[in-house]
Amino acid sequence: MADTDGDPFFEHALRLKVRGTVIGMLFSKILVSYDDSELAKKALKKAADLALLDESTELDVLNVVTIPTNQFIVGDVYREVRESTLKYGHELVSRAEKLLDELPNATHTFVKEGQPVRTILDFASENGYDLIVIGSRGLSGVKEFLGSVSHGVVQRSKVPVLIIK
Predict the structure, then answer these.
(1) pLDDT of 72
(2) Crossing angle of the two packed helices 148-156 and 116-126, in degrees rounded to 10
(3) Three-class SS of residue 118?
(4) Whole-prediction pTM
């Protein structure tokens, strides 16, 4: 059981707590958007802490790759760029698997190709996630309160989104 005493998010995440014992969780399936940035690593750690509150909670990690396209990337070059980009995505989620392997929860990793906001939201909806956890900024390093991906996910998500700063 994770040490969550005094953390307001965890207190609100609990559906029912009787005499300090967790009876049930609000979130049964958590999706972490992961790009191996420092904030993505923090998001994964926070999601793991949440999942540890109830071993029946599933925790999955998704990396979305965007294949660069333009008029010069065609044929064999496009295939090579696509394969290389997907391989890199798999390398990123394999780094996350080290933490996931330590959890008693069911965990999975996925790499999907597409526009990040749409792909995250479609994947979450199609697979029944009830919480999305995402870093406030990813590898692009956009220096705003929220990066464009996290902002888009928050604005369009039909399920709760936990933003990690």
Answers:
(1) 73
(2) 40
(3) helix
(4) 0.81
**Cβ atoms of 137 and 164 closer than 8 Å:** no
Nearest by Cα to 51 from 127, 133, 147, 136:
133
Mean pLDDT on 75-99: 92
Rounded-to-10 torsion of CA 130, 88, 163, 23: 40
Burial of 114 (C-beta count, 10 Å sphere; 0-12/13-18/19+): middle
* 37: phi then psi, degrees, rounded to nearest 5: -70, 165
What phi-psi label fits residue 75: left (phi over 0), alpha (psi between -120 and 50 degrees) or beta?
left
Place of tokens 């965007």: 66
151-156's contacts with Cβ under 8 Å and 24+ in sequence apart are: 152/116, 152/117, 153/33, 153/117, 153/120, 153/121, 156/117, 156/121
Please give the structure tokens belonging to residue 25: 């969780």
User: What tokens were used for 18?
Assistant: 């009787």
Over residues 37-69, the pLDDT tens digits come to 999 999 999 999 999 989 999 999 999 999 877
Phi, psi of 98 (to 5 degrees): -60, -45
The C-alpha atoms of residue 89 and residue 108 are separated, in whole angstroms, by 14
Residue 61 in tokens: 């990690």
